[in-house]
UniProtKB/TrEMBL annotation, chain A:
Location of the Integrator complex subunit 14 beta-barrel domain: 130-277
Entry-linked Pfam families: IntS14_b-barrel, IntS14_C
Protein name: Integrator complex subunit 14 isoform X2
Keywords: Nucleus
Domain of life where this protein originates: Eukaryota
Gene it is expressed from: INTS14
Subcellular location: Nucleus
The keyword Plastid is assigned to this record: no
Domain spans labelled Integrator complex subunit 14 C-terminal: 325-432
InterPro entries documented for this protein: INTS14, IntS14_b-barrel, IntS14_C
Automatic annotation (TrEMBL), chain B:
A single GO cellular-component term on record: cytoplasm
Name of this chain's protein: Integrator complex subunit 13 isoform X3
Keyword annotations from UniProtKB, A to Z: Cell cycle, Cell division, Cytoplasm, Mitosis, Nucleus
Entry keyword annotation includes RNA-binding: no
Length: 439, 646
């Protein structure tokens, strides 16, 4: 980021915008801390000027607020409230928060400008924005105190039906385990490090066990490092087994715990949050319907661990999995007609496929009210009949004539032959016995 | 995101009046003569679709895409209109699929060109459409029931897509007025009804379609608010493929879809099996799959505008697949897809490849020439999803390793045992409802939690904290004692385990007692066994409230385990104290404490019963009974036993 020698908040905010997006994309929540003396600059580029021209922006010089990523804008003023109120500075800064959809806050110094008061102001920011999220990770009676980092953000499921943001429980309860192949790279709202922490009797954090330069903490951390911790056990087994733990985060809200390797040696326990709701992953089905394998009649994973109850199959197949008929492009129609024709020329060997394709075309033509096509294909089959070589099997002519006749009946659209569920069946001939053997 | 937006309910109203039987005047060659065939054959004359056929197949294509991408919560009601309105399906989820609609359309058949045009009108269908929009869907009903006093939060909005052949702009105006009027009337009716909902917002999309080559008598008009409840737009579209294109654009607009073209898909040629050519396949999906491009304004870089289409497609390059289903990708979204050209060979090749369980990573060509893997195509249970993979920098860079934190210095975690524990506590779906003994619904997930609770009542985390879990001999007991209920066979196995341990103790077998932190050789052998028995007792005691059979295991354990003298002393003292206690207080007291098996007579009785049970089981099992019990049992009839000891 370039630095400038003139107060120009807009370009600073544009710079923030660009940096955050380039580095982290548009989905990661970011806290932006703006430290200012409360002076807004002068002339062009001053905040007053920026705000005054706010309504005259085009897409190319869009004002950087609201930030194009989830954000909180904290404005730290090196001035007290009285000083700011003497000009319109405070109003302008408040406009900034408003422009960021109200996400953020302004901090001012209580009393005169001195080191102590500035420290206390930043202390307030830390309390507000940087409090660690402490939770208890539970798996039955096995528990561990943990810090979840970064702090999980509240989530709104449907602003109309349920406008209250959901927050995750401080009890993170494991409900069971699933193989990584079965959970299959699920979409997640966010992911977080789960760090085991050591708490003293009062519940204050003693240390994360991470070795620090600080002498006093060092010994405490070393002790914490030597006390068995459930997180480490869980992490180790998840890693070895290639599994994830499903964790309940709140009512109808779940997530998963897994081992995440950062590099060759370093790896960590991570937690990802699924979208709240009864069925966050269609391939697992409803979360409340997941139960212990011991309740099943036979082990759904097989005795040799060679099968899996996942993924769940949906009731209805999607169009690409069920051979739907689409004739919007002429090529679609031509392909289907060609298929019939190709099989017609290989009668009686291809009797079954011939009728299968014929019936598929017939059904679609009836649904689309495209009766002319039925007549056309009937004509075509009759012509094929006349073109049969002398060597052709006698059954071929019988089947072609029969099929053509049936299509013509269907093309009237009125007779019983035009029923959608009616299927044209092969003509029973003296030869059909022998032809059936050849199929 | 709103569940009950206009897209929750879509009503198709398709004109079935005589003029819709007219040809669209766009020919389709269906008799494609293949090379090398007899010369001199004149191909059959091309045919053309009617306005009705064009309308129906375009609306079916709209539904196909919608059902592929939103199989739930986005519903279609299909109405055809002639001398009356024919409602072909309902809002129920079972009615929401192409097969149902196709069968219903086949039953209606094409319009009758000889019917009296005076009797027929699209108005019947439009009135029925408003009526059907007032009907509550199962999703709305469910949400209302769930929200109780906040039921009014559940919205009722919808969209009417009407395909007709209008006579003029004023005719269009008349249709709009009719819808407006009908909404007004039906909202009054709905206000006094429990099973109807007032329409809050209705989007009317009027599509005037006419044969190719004719002049349109109706002009296009963008969306306009006719009243706070009704907006309307008019599209004047030539029939044939133009109508299909229009509905394809509309389905994308209505459901916030975007297009991705997968490029460079290697495919084997049928004729030349050795060579492969590269193909492109265009997919539709929710536009959020492009969220990273949209926000960073990067979309114009890789997007290319397709002619005749309102929207751009983003090109992503196929990466040679590798087996990666055991890899957990950081995925920020997964969206169902629908191929634009579902039956084309490249499309079906791609979808079949994915349906067979393989995944494909997709690469995003960037301005700088650097390549970033940004998406993944993968199928789950017969549905294909476009996964958005995070390609930006992680905010969790260089995190401390777990080995550096709390418990990180401990090296003897029972990793393998916990792995086994996890496998036993894997989840599986229970789709049919189950009921508890009291008739209430059993929630499988609660059962899973119960099981975890049971399995962890006694679970030492490190090897040096446990003896019994390091002993193969204890496995038969340890693996079943955690169960909610035991079979007779389980009990016998537990007893066998205990007898086996007694035998080990008699033979003075060494135990895998940890010597960590102790100097010298560690505890003496009898001390080792005392530790082992104590631990086993802790495990079994943790489960005695599960069932009467669990208690029997404890009874066996207490009868057989060796006890140091001082413990016997303590228990005797305890009994004396107990005698003094008030009887009612005693009853409240956890009975497990009281059921001590000092009483040798009871021990004898117990052993007798179990020996008999073993005999009944027809298995010949060697039971070793400590000598101290010998005289107690000797006299019991029908018991044949072996004794040991000096």
């Amino acid at each position: 980021m370039d630095d400038y020698d003139k107060t120009c908040l807009e370009s600073a905010l544009v710079g923030v915008c660009n940096i955050v997006q380039q580095e982290w994309g548009g989905a990661i929540p970011c806290q932006v801390v703006l430290v200012t003396d409360g002076c807004l600059g002068i002339g062009r580029g001053s905040l007053r000027h920026s705000l005054a021209t706010h309504n005259q922006r085009s897409e190319s010089n869009r004002f950087p607020l609201p930030f194009p990523f989830p954000s909180k804008l904290y404005i730290m003023c090196m001035a007290n409230l009285e000083e700011l109120q003497s000009t319109d500075s405070l109003d302008c800064l408040e406009r900034l928060i408003d422009l960021n959809n109200g996400e953020g806050q302004i901090f001012t110094i209580d009393g005169p400008l001195c080191l102590k008061n500035v420290q206390s102001m930043f202390g307030k920011l830390i309390d507000l924005a940087y409090t660690p999220f402490h939770a208890v990770l539970k798996c039955g009676h096995l528990t561990a105190d943990v810090q979840v980092f970064p702090r999980p953000e509240p989530f709104v499921i449907d602003e109309e039906i349920d406008p209250i943001p959901k927050v995750i429980n401080t009890d993170l309860e494991i409900v069971g385990f699933i193989d990584i192949a079965d959970i299959s790279s699920p979409p997640v709202l966010s992911r977080h490090l789960v760090l085991p922490i050591a708490l003293n009797k009062e519940g204050d954090e003693v240390g994360t066990g991470i070795t620090d330069d600080n002498e006093d903490e060092n010994s405490a951390n070393q002790i914490a490092g030597k006390i068995p911790n459930f997180c480490v056990l869980l992490h180790g087994s998840l890693k070895v087994e290639g599994m994830v733990a499903i964790v309940q985060l709140g009512p109808e809200w779940h997530g998963m715990l897994y081992s995440q390797a950062d590099s060759k040696k370093k790896s960590n326990l991570m937690m990802s949050l699924f979208e709240p709701g009864p069925e966050p992953l269609p391939w697992l089905g409803k979360m409340v319907q997941l139960g212990p394998i011991s309740d099943a009649k036979e082990n759904p994973y097989g005795e040799d661990d060679n099968k899996s109850p996942f993924p769940l199959q949906p009731k209805n197949k999607r169009s690409y999995a069920q051979n739907v008929t689409v004739w919007i492009k002429p090529s679609g129609l031509q392909t289907d007609v060609q298929k019939i024709l190709r099989n017609a020329r290989k009668l009686p060997e291809k009797t079954q496929t011939f009728y299968k394709e014929l019936n598929r075309l017939r059904k679609a033509a009836l649904a689309f009210g495209f009766l002319d096509l039925l007549k056309g294909v009937a004509d075509m089959l009759e012509r094929e009949c006349t073109l049969l070589p002398d060597t052709a099997h006698p059954d071929a002519a019988f089947q072609l004539t029969h099929a053509a006749q049936q299509l013509k009946l269907a093309s009237t659209g009125t007779s019983e032959y035009a029923g959608y569920d009616h299927n044209i069946t092969p003509l029973q001939t003296d030869f059909s016995g022998s032809s059936a053997e050849r199929i | 995101m709103k569940i009950f937006s206009e897209s929750h309910k879509t009503v198709f109203v398709v004109d079935h009046c005589p003029y819709m039987a007219e040809s669209c005047r766009q020919h389709v060659e269906f008799d494609m003569l293949v090379k090398n065939r007899t010369q001199g054959i004149i191909p059959l004359a091309p045919i053309s679709k009617s306005l009705w056929t064009c309308s129906v197949e375009s609306s079916m294509e709209y539904c196909r895409i919608m059902y592929d991408i939103f199989p739930f919560k986005k519903l279609v009601n299909f109405i055809v209109s002639d001398s009356g309105a024919h409602v072909l399906n309902s809002w129920t989820q079972e009615d929401q699929n192409l097969q149902e609609l196709m069968a219903a359309l086949a039953a209606v058949g094409p319009p009758n060109p000889r019917a009296d045009p005076e009797c027929c009108s699209i108005l019947h269908g439009l009135v029925a459409a408003v009526e059907t929009l007032c009907k509550i869907t199962e999703y709305q009903h469910e949400a209302r029931t769930l929200l109780m006093e906040n039921a009014e939060r559940v919205g009722n909005r919808g969209r009417i897509i009407c395909i007709t052949n209008a006579k003029s702009d004023s005719h269009v105006r008349m249709l709009e007025d009719c819808v407006q009027e009908t909404i007004h009337e039906h909202n009054k009716l709905a206000a006094n009804s429990d099973h109807l909902m007032q329409i809050q917002k209705c989007e009317l999309v009027l599509i005037h379609t006419y044969p190719v080559g004719e002049d349109s008598l109706v002009s296009d008009r963008p969306k306009k608010e006719l009243s706070p409840v009704l907006t309307s737009e008019v599209h004047s579209v030539r029939a044939g493929r133009h109508l299909a294109t229009k509905l394809n654009i509309l389905v994308q607009q209505h459901f916030d879809l975007a297009s991705t073209t997968i490029t460079n898909i290697p495919m084997k040629e049928e004729q030349h099996a050795n060579t492969s050519a590269n193909y492109d396949v265009e997919l539709l999906h929710h536009k959020d799959a492009h969220v990273d491009f949209l926000k960073s304004g990067d979309n114009h870089l890789s997007g290319s505008s397709r002619e005749g289409s309102f929207k751009e497609t983003i090109t992503l390059k196929w990466c040679t697949p590798r087996t990666n289903n055991i890899e957990l990708h950081y995925c920020t979204g997964a969206y169902r897809i629908s191929p634009v050209d579902v039956n084309s060979r490249p499309s079906s090749c791609l979808t079949n490849f994915l349906l067979n369980g393989r995944s494909v990573l997709l690469e995003q060509p960037r301005k700088s020439g650097s390549k970033v893997i940004s998406h993944m195509l993968s199928s789950h249970g017969g549905e294909i999803f476009l996964h958005v993979l995070s390609s930006s920098r992680s905010i969790l860079e260089d995190p401390p390793s777990i080995s550096e934190g709390c418990g990180g210095r401990v090296t003897d975690y029972r990793i393998t045992d916990f792995g086994e524990f996890m496998r036993e506590n894997r989840l599986t779906p229970f789709l049919d409802p189950r009921y508890k003994i009291d008739g209430s619904l059993e929630i499988p997930l609660e059962r899973a939690k119960d099981q975890l609770e049971k399995h962890t009542r006694y679970w030492p985390m490190i090897i040096s904290q446990t003896t019994i879990f390091n002993m193969q001999a204890v496995v038969p007991l340890a693996s079943v004692i955690v169960k909610e209920s035991l079979t007779e066979e389980d009990v016998l196995n537990c007893q066998k385990t205990i007898y086996n341990l007694v035998d080990m103790e008699r033979k003075n077998d060494p135990l895998p007692i940890s010597t960590v932190g102790t100097r010298g050789k560690g505890p003496k052998r009898d001390e080792q066994y005392r530790i082992m028995w104590n631990e086993l007792e802790t495990l079994v005691r943790a489960h005695i409230n599960n069932s009467e059979k669990h208690q029997r295991v404890l009874e066996c354990l207490m009868a057989c385990r060796s006890k140091p003298p001082e413990e016997e002393e303590r228990k005797k003292r305890g009994r004396k104290r107990e005698d003094k206690e008030d009887k009612s207080e005693k009853a409240v007291k956890d009975y497990e404490q009281e059921k001590s098996w000092q009483d040798s007579e009871r021990a004898a009785e117990f052993l007798t019963q179990n020996c008999l049970a073993l005999r009944r089981g027809g298995k010949s099992i060697l039971i070793l009974i400590p000598l101290i019990f010998k005289h107690e049992i000797q006299d019991k009839p029908g018991v044949k036993f072996l004794t040991y000891g000096t």
